[in-house]
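Justification of computing resources. Each target in the renewal requires a structure prediction run like the one illustrated here; the chain below, 231 residues long, is used simply to show the kind of job we budget for.
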Amino acid sequence: MTGFGVRGGAPRPGVRWSLVVPVKHLGRAKTRLALAAGGLREDLALAIACDTVEAALACPGVEAVFAVTEDPRAGAELTGLGAVVVGGEPGTGLNSALAHGAAAARRRRPGAGVCALSADLPALRPDELGRVLAAAARHGRSFLPDAPGVGTTLLAAAPGHPFTPAFEGASRARHRDGGAHEIALPDVASVRRDVDTPEDLCDAVGLGVGPRTRELWETVAGSCLRSQGAP
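Resulting C-alpha cells:
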C-alpha cells in the first residue's frame, strides 16, 4: 500500500486545505519562456502566478493560500488577491521554500491539511482543483503528476501527516517511492498543465487560461507558434 491511506478509502469529513504556492523572484522566473515572451517574460510569469492563485482561492475546499516569495512586486499583487505572503525563505531551493511555507501555514491554520501547488497553472479550474483535493482527503499523503507524467503539480499532506516535498525533475517517481499515494482522476487537465516552455503555454491556452495570462497571450502568441515550427 502506498502512503498512509484511510481505511477503505473513505474521505476525511470536513478537510480543508492550506495551499502553499512558491513564486520565484520574477527576475529568475520562467526563463524558458524568454524566447516567446521577450521583454514581457517577467510580466507573463507574474500573470501566470496570479491566475493560479486567484483560481485556487475560488476553490471551496481551500482555507487559505500561502504564497512563498521574496519578490516585492509579486508579493504585492498576490496580497491584493487575498493570498498570505510568506517571506524569509531559506534560499536553498524549491523544497526548502515549500517546507518553510508549510510551517507558516500550519502555524496559522493548524487544523487544515497542507498542499503544495505549482505556481504555473494558468488554466487552473477551481472545480477541478476541488476534485483533486477531495481525492487527497482520502489519503494521508498524496500527489498529482504533471501532464507529461514526469513531475508533480500538487502534493498534499492531510492534518497530522508529514509534509515532505521532493519536487524538481522526476518528482513523480520520488513522491511515489516516498510513500505518497498517486492521485489518478480523469478530467483534471487544468491542475496538471504547468507551464515551463512555449509549447506548455500553447497547451494551457488551448485549455483556457485566466484573464491576466490571456491578456498577454496575444502579444506572445506569434513567437510561441514560431517556436513550435508553425507556418
